[in-house]
Design goal:
Helix content of chain A: 25-40%
Radius of gyration of chain B: 16 Å
Structural class of chain B: mainly beta
Number of strands of chain A: 12
Radius of gyration of chain A: 19 Å
Number of domains of chain B: 1
Strand content of chain B: 35-45%
Oligomer: heterodimer
CATH class of chain A: Alpha Beta
Chain lengths: 381, 133
């Protein structure tokens, strides 16, 4: 029994001064529900920081009420930046269990209600507050530790490190939901200020607002629909919560395990992947994910992207709708933007960035510094 | 964010003396101390004080800090591999940014991390400086 994606909905990512966390989540949810033509039996809400940024929790029930679905079972899922993928995993298993036939999984994050410093504090809760947060590390600086080590160890240049940001922006130009729809050059990236050396501002995904939603249904219910996208696997794996404790600081064990399990569950080998959505919150996260999953050789991912691999005409094509860097990264929503974008590609609705004959799409949604990884494998039936 | 006095107090020995734990079964040392060994899942762990000397493994400069560190930026954060092979994260002190080099020899000293305003707590912990020969 494979859960089927029967509808998706997205808001544009950006700074939505006139919208609240609630209104963004409602907009994406209604669109997903309407496009599915079904009524959800359960709601899974993905969000990381509402308790700190909006001083609002209890999001599952809040959304059920707003959607006119009082009475429905509803849960909120949190796994830092991987919240969306992990929420999808929960909904996937709810459908697979046979207990629910239709599930709404929605991710939303509203990051512009607070100052950059307050949001930076909230983002650091992805790590151990007492032994990493105490020392004044920002979330970007933890990724910067990996970024510097990677450059040193594999002799990778600044230009090569920047290349995934350039690629994502190239694709984001044609995504109507993307926050920054413009190309950037390597030179612009390297001339942008450091957020945490050696990570430049234009190598880091922006602080953003947005919501994305997916309706999943059982095969039985989906039979009456024209939907053609099945979820072949949804996996989650974790690693040491404190980045500095890792045995090998340049392997994301969580990505390695989650991908291995996804391959064995779906029987889909890496050379069959047409579209790959990488979690480029920082370029280093994208490279270490590619390498940990075995899609690129160790130490070679940045060099491959810099030599124009993974473009729209390549297989796999990477971040076809702009990735986190250009589309934006409203934390709890990101994993569901990835799924929604794969859905557009697999249903031939990706517009100018449509990858010809795309059959298999894979999304890596990463929380922390490779601390939690969720892998989703979608297939056009 | 301000911390309650008890929350701060219970972490003091760990932050100021670098107390970790040693697994009686597999011998591995972890920082901070814990109840279950992450390598062999043994529950026979005892507290040990970690060495204060080590080498810089990687570093970054925090230019956009969390709210509570706003007035201290920019500052250097690093991963330090201690003499017993255990990694810790810490700020670097008593050094110019241009002199920070991967592999440099460091030593831990007790320093102030931040103040919570005029009447709040003052946070102390270990920072690492270039080793004085």
């Amino acid at each position: 029994m494979k859960p089927i994606v029967v509808g998706v909905g997205m808001t544009k990512v950006g700074e939505h001064w006139d919208e609240s966390l609630k209104s963004l989540a409602v907009e994406a949810s209604l669109e997903a529900i309407d496009s599915s033509g079904l009524t959800p039996e359960v709601i899974v809400f993905s969000n990381m920081m509402s308790g700190r940024l909006q001083v609002q929790d209890h999001l599952g029930t809040l959304l059920a009420d707003e959607l006119g679905l009082r009475g429905l079972p509803a849960v909120r899922v949190e796994a830092a930046c991987a919240s969306g993928g992990v929420a999808f995993h929960v909904a996937y298993n709810m459908i697979k269990s046979g207990i629910y036939k239709v599930a709404l999984v929605v991710g939303a994050e509203k990051m512009s209600d607070t100052s950059t410093e307050q949001t930076t504090t909230a983002l650091m809760t992805a790590e151990d507050r007492e032994y990493t947060g105490f020392y004044g590390a920002s979330f970007v600086s933890l990724n910067a530790l990996a970024h510097r080590l990677y450059m040193e160890k594999f002799n990778v240049s600044e230009e090569e490190m920047a290349s995934l940001a350039v690629l994502s922006h190239e694709n984001g130009v044609n995504n109507p939901f993307a926050m920054y729809r413009r190309k950037i050059s390597t030179k612009e990236v390297l001339e942008s200020p450091y957020v945490a050396d050696p990570i430049h501002l234009l190598e880091a995904a922006p602080i953003s607002d947005g919501a994305a939603a997916v309706v999943l249904a059982s095969e039985e219910v989906a039979k009456t629909k024209s939907s053609v996208v099945s979820v072949e696997a949804s996996t989650v794996a974790t690693d040491a919560i404190r980045y500095y404790e890792r045995e090998d600081l340049l392997t994301f064990e969580s990505a390695k395990k989650a991908f291995m399990n996804a391959v064995s569950a779906s029987k889909i080998e890496k050379d069959r992947i047409d579209i790959l959505e990488l979690h480029d919150a920082f370029t280093i996260v994208g490279y270490l994910t590619l390498e940990s999953a075995g899609i690129a050789e160790r130490g070679k991912a940045a060099k491959l992207v810099a030599s124009n691999k993974f473009t729209l005409s390549d297989k796999p094509a990477v971040n076809t709708m702009g990735g986190l860097k250009s589309r934006g990264h409203p934390i709890g929503a990101t994993g569901l933007y990835q799924i929604s974008e794969l859905y557009l590609q697999l249903t031939n609705n990706a517009g100018k960035n449509q990858v010809d004959n795309a059959k298999i799409g894979v999304a890596f949604n990463v929380g922390g510094v490779g601390t939690t990884t969720s892998v989703s494998v979608l297939k056009r039936r | 964010m301000s911390e309650s006095v008890p929350r701060y107090w219970r972490e003091i020995k760990i932050r100021e003396r670098l107390i970790g734990s040693k697994c009686e079964d597999c011998g591995r040392i972890t920082f901070p101390p814990r109840k279950v060994c992450p390598y062999c899942r043994s529950r026979k762990l005892t507290e040990v004080e970690l060495p204060k000397k080590g080498k810089l493994l990687s570093y970054s400069v925090v230019r956009k800090p969390p709210a509570e560190f706003e007035k201290y930026a920019p500052y250097v954060i690093g991963i330090i591999t201690l003499e017993n092979g255990v990694n810790v994260i810490s700020q670097l002190t008593d050094i110019d940014l241009k002199d920070v080099k991967i592999g440099m020899e460091l030593e831990g000293v007790l320093r102030k991390y931040r103040e919570e305003g005029e009447e709040g707590l003052i946070h102390y912990g270990i920072k690492f400086r270039p080793r004085i020969k």
